[in-house]
Design brief:
binds nicotinamide-adenine-dinucleotide, oxidoreductase, single chain, Rossmann fold, 278 residues, alpha/beta
């Protein structure tokens, strides 16, 4: 989708990190904005940071793990703007720790937000986009962790591998339906955003992995050391949308680890540990 001006962008996870930077870039591209997040204060800050107070914007409180919240988001989007052209299924959280100490509460929380949040976004928006006709584009935020399998992050990796394969299937299905809806899957490596602190937003009463603090500290160190900023990732993402790119990998170095994983599979080897050193 090359021409963005005047079109409607819907961004989940718009209160922080990539979502906030995408909102700023889409506003600079003269798009109308629908911002969605469960963090209302953070969304208000995003609105304040937009390049002009005159950007048409709708901010909706939304928990992406709840299908009815995405349905409400779509209804409010069409009520306000009559269309949606660019959907960023971006909201996400991270929990780290070994597979066997990750609690069932954590498995449910992470999969409900990171994977089912994307599913709910697609189920509420794609049928309406198909009915509206014309060009549209869906960007699902996965992660480099959706393409490789670093140790200590199985729940996060499962959710993000799910988002990658879901995006590939969606791409094929939309081509078969001869629709003009494009798809991209965003797979960044570590970037310094709020993600390393998502532990603090756990649903009340959620049993935590006893090792999660130690692993969360490693994630915090790794994100702090990230070479690209959230603004860089947002810029590369929008360039990818304009260029019609499917896989958007802002960190090129990750391709070596992906290649190693693919060779392990094709050559019947045990998996090579490509976990980045914090
Ligand atoms: N920062 C990284 O290193 C990195 C790397 C790869 C992928 N990602 C992915 O990028 C996406 C954006 O994360 P970020 O790095 O900008 O982190 P962030 O914490 O800065 O932003 C995530 C946003 O999602 C929102 N959110 C969390 N749970 C939600 C829910 N249930 N409903 C609605 N909103 C919810 C948060 O309130 C927050 O505003 C996530 O999907 C994350 O997994 C991040």
């Amino acid at each position: 989708m090359q021409e963005l001006a005047g079109k409607v962008a819907v961004i989940t996870g718009a209160a922080s990190g990539f979502g906030r930077e995408l909102a700023i870039l889409c506003a600079e591209a003269d798009m109308k904005l629908v911002l969605a997040d469960r963090n209302e204060a953070g969304m208000a800050t995003t609105v304040e940071m937009l390049p002009s107070p005159h950007v048409p914007v709708l901010a909706v409180t939304c928990d992406v793990s709840r299908p009815q919240d995405l349905e409400n988001l779509a209804e409010r989007t069409w009520e306000k703007f009559g269309a949606a052209h660019l959907l960023f299924n971006n909201a996400g959280i991270a929990v780290a720790g070994p597979t066997w100490t990750t609690t069932l509460d954590e498995w449910k929380w992470v999969l409900d937000v990171n994977l089912m949040g994307v599913v709910h976004g697609i189920r509420s928006f794609v049928p309406r986009m198909l009915a509206q006709g014309g060009e549209a584009h869906v960007v699902n935020t996965a992660s480099a962790a959706g393409l490789v399998s670093p140790k200590g992050s199985s729940v996060y990796c499962v959710s993000k591998h799910g988002v990658v394969t879901l995006s590939e299937c969606l791409y094929h299905e939309l081509r078969e339906a001869e629709s003009s809806i494009g798809v991209s899957v965003l797979c960044p490596a570590f970037v310094d955003t709020g993600i390393a602190h998502s532990d603090q937003t756990r649903p009340e009463g959620t049993a935590a992995n006893p090792l999660s603090q130690r692993y969360a500290e490693q994630v915090r160190r790794a994100t702090k050391a990230g070479k690209l900023s959230a603004a860089d990732v947002a810029r590369i993402t929008l360039e990818g949308v304009r260029a019609g790119r499917f896989y958007i990998l802002p960190h090129k170095a990750i391709k070596r680890a992906i290649e190693t994983r693919m060779q392990d599979i094709l050559e019947d080897r045990v998996p090579t540990d490509t976990t980045p050193r914090p």
